[in-house]
Every structure is written in structure tokens, then in C-alpha cells.
């Protein structure tokens, strides 16, 4: 609406001069003619983003203790690392955790499969991709996201820790998002476990041999990553942190 000075106010936004629209918001709302391009505009995008958060929070609020598992979308079922993923899903459920993955194929499917077969909650947070394959068949609670950043919030908000299986760029993105949140203390008591010493050795060497001497991380930051070779060790590390959190929880 226009004020006495002729300024046009649209929520917190003030428009002046040639930016003042020739029609009011109500006029545009009630005018059914014209093209439908507006549904693809940023304000509508914000509504869809909000809806993703609301739906994600609603679906996961009662999940209970959970661990997010990341790993390659490309590892086939016959590969030994797939079996490691199945065992991880199983081990986490036996330790009392729900398992949250990206809901896709490969090692996500493996962890969901282990979780489901062990009788636990098996969550898949799917993402809309051009080459999307849908949720894997071992997900029993699935939420599909259009936006990576909304989905990432769910991985952190509803988990007590992360276990990271071998993976590519997607897995590294999720790993370093978590590391940054812990490093900047946006989340606390949040173990990040890399499962597969051989696979992760090169990355860890580079972190120690290049990042540390360059001063882009501190020595204490190295402690943020736990690298292990067995499911038992991974589960022990995330369970340990769960106990820390329980001890600090108010009565
Ligand atoms: C590549 C293929 C399918 C991709 N489908 C995905 N579905 C769900 N989540 C995915 C998918 N691809 C990547 N992600 C996320 O990134 C991580 C795996 O990425 P990487 O590059 O394979 O390591 C994973 O944790 C997901 O959250 C068809 O083969």
C-alpha cells in the first residue's frame, strides 16, 4: 500500500519512484488473467522452503535417538562395503538408534536395509534430482525434499551423531557440513565417525599434512573426526556421545 508520501510498502520492503507498482497486491491477487509465471517467483519459493521445514519437522519429531549415515549412492549390492553398510544399520538399531539416510541407492540403501531388517526405524530423506531414483525399498519413513539445505537441517536436527561410509562429493559435502557445525559449536556432543580406515586415509593425510601446517584448521580440529574400521567401534563412539548427552539432560 501507498503511504501519504507516495512510498509503496510491501511488508518490510519500501518501493519508491519507478519501482512503485501500478496495481495493488489485492488487485493482482483477484485478477485471474495474465500468465502463471508468478508461481515460480522467489516469494513462492520461500513458501515451498518453509513447507519443507514444517513437513520435515512434523514427520521426524517423534523419531527418538537417531544416527545419520552417509555414503556413496554408487556402491553396488555385491560390493563388500555394501555389506558393511548393512551391518552398520543393524548395529545402530541394536544400540537403540533409528537410522537416517539420504534414502537413495548404494550405501544409503545398505544402512536402511540393515536398520529395517533389525526391526528398527529406517528413515530416508530423499532429494529431488534430475536423475532421481526414488526412495530405496528399505525405507519405512520417507520424506522427500526439493532443497538440499532443508534436508541437511533434518540430518543434523534429528540425529545424535553421524557415521560416514565411503562416498563421493555428496558424502564429502555432508561430512564437512557436519564438521563445520561442530567446529563452530553450532552443535555440541556430536560425534562424526568415518568408517573405513583405508578409504579415508588419503583425506586425513591431506587434512593433517596440508590444512594443519597452512593454519587453516587448528590442532584441536583434528579431534573432530574419528576414523574406525569396524561397526562396533562406530556404534561405541556414537553411543558414548548419547550417554554424555543423557547425563547432561535436565531431569
Ligand atoms: C547417483 C545416483 C543416484 C543419486 N541418488 C541420490 N539419492 C539420495 N541422496 C543422494 C543421491 N545422490 C547423492 N545423495 C546424497 O549425497 C550422498 C551420496 O553422494 P555420493 O556423491 O554418492 O557420495 C548421500 O549421503 C546422499 O545424502 C545413481 O547411482
TrEMBL record:
Residues 1-10 have a biased composition (Basic and acidic residues). Coiled coil: none annotated. One of its GO terms (molecular function) is hydrolase activity. GO terms for cellular component: cytosol. It catalyses: N(6)-(dimethylallyl)adenosine 5'-phosphate + H2O = N(6)-dimethylallyladenine + D-ribose 5-phosphate; 9-ribosyl-trans-zeatin 5'-phosphate + H2O = trans-zeatin + D-ribose 5-phosphate. InterPro entries: LOG (IPR005269), LOG_fam (IPR031100), LOG_family_nucleotidases (IPR052341). The keyword Lipid biosynthesis does not apply. This is Cytokinin riboside 5'-monophosphate phosphoribohydrolase.
Amino acid at each position: 500500500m501507498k503511504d501519504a508520501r507516495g512510498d509503496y510498502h510491501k511488508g518490510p520492503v519500501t518501493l519508491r519512484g519507478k519501482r512503485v507498482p501500478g496495481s495493488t497486491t489485492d488487485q493482482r491477487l483477484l485478477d485471474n488473467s495474465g500468465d502463471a509465471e508468478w508461481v515460480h517467483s522467489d516469494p513462492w519459493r520461500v513458501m515451498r522452503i518453509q513447507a519443507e521445514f514444517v513437513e520435515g519437522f512434523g514427520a521426524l519429531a517423534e523419531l527418538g535417538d537417531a544416527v545419520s549415515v552417509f555414503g556413496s549412492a554408487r556402491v553396488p549390492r555385491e560390493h563388500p562395503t555394501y555389506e558393511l553398510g548393512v551391518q552398520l544399520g543393524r548395529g545402530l538399531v541394536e544400540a537403540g538408534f533409528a537410522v537416517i539416510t539420504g534414502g537413495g541407492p548404494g550405501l544409503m540403501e545398505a544402512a536402511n536395509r540393515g536398520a529395517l531388517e533389525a526391526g528398527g526405524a529406517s528413515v530416508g530423506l530423499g532429494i529431488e534430482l534430475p536423475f532421481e531414483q526414488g526412495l530405496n525399498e528399505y525405507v519405512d519413513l520417507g520424506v522427500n525434499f526439493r532443497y538440499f539445505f532443508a534436508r541437511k537441517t533434518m540430518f543434523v536436527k534429528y540425529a545424535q551423531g553421524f557415521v560416514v561410509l565411503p562416498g563421493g562429493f555428496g558424502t564429502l559435502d555432508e561430512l564437512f557440513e557436519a564438521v563445520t557445525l561442530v567446529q563452530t559449536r553450532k552443535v555440541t556432543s556430536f560425534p562424526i565417525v568415518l568408517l573405513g580406515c583405508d578409504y579415508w586415509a588419503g583425506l586425513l593425510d591431506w587434512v593433517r599434512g596440508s590444512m594443519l601446517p597452512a593454519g587453516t584448521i587448528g590442532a584441536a580440529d583434528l579431534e573432530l573426526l574419528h576414523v574406525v574400521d569396524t561397526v562396533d567401534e562406530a556404534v561405541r563412539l556414537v553411543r558414548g556421545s548419547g550417554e554424555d548427552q543423557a547425563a547432561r539432560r535436565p531431569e
